[in-house]
Write a structure and sequence with these properties.
Layout (H helix, E strand, L loop, with lengths): L3 E6 L13 H18 L4 H7 L5 E8 L8 E11 L3 E10 L6 E10 L14 H10 L1
Antiparallel strand pairs: 1-3, 2-5, 3-4, 4-5
């Protein structure tokens, strides 16, 4: 339950002139993985809108270890490290899809839970959040 792997292929738009993934795109890949995971769990963007909440990025600590290249297939591995009253902390890393040991980048990402006015708000009491909380204890 607390592990999601998202596979993607690096496209030209993701790279610089040398065919290396541009550094900010690693964050885009991680965002895509988190969004896909939440959607699969039944708590995607539409459900979040119904709850009147948003999850802006509050904190990112990212370490670039090896470059990713044009046309390379990579995986974004995501786990939830902790859930606070109004935040979620994720551990994420990107790896070469052909080698689980070849870690390209790793990050700790903290998302805040806010209402429509961007004030902090407690995470909603929805089944998937409760299930993940239980899995962390």
């Amino acid at each position: 339950m607390n592990l999601f792997t998202y596979t993607l292929r690096v496209h030209v738009e993701d790279t610089d002139f040398a065919g290396v993934v541009y550094h900010s795109n690693y964050l885009n890949f991680m965002e895509r993985a988190r969004s896909e995971w939440f959607a699969l769990l039944g708590f995607g963007i539409e459900e979040q809108r119904k709850e009147g909440i948003y999850f802006p990025l509050r904190y990112a600590n990212i370490e670039f270890l090896k470059p990713a290249y044009l046309h390379q297939t990579i995986e974004v591995v995501t786990t939830i490290k902790s859930i606070g009253k109004a935040s979620i902390i994720f551990d994420q890393h990107l790896r070469d899809a052909s080698s689980n040991d070849k870690i390209l980048c790793k990050a700790e990402i903290k998302l805040a839970c806010v209402d429509k006015t961007f004030r902090p708000r407690a995470l909603p009491d929805v089944p998937i959040i409760a299930t993940i909380r239980r899995s962390l204890t």
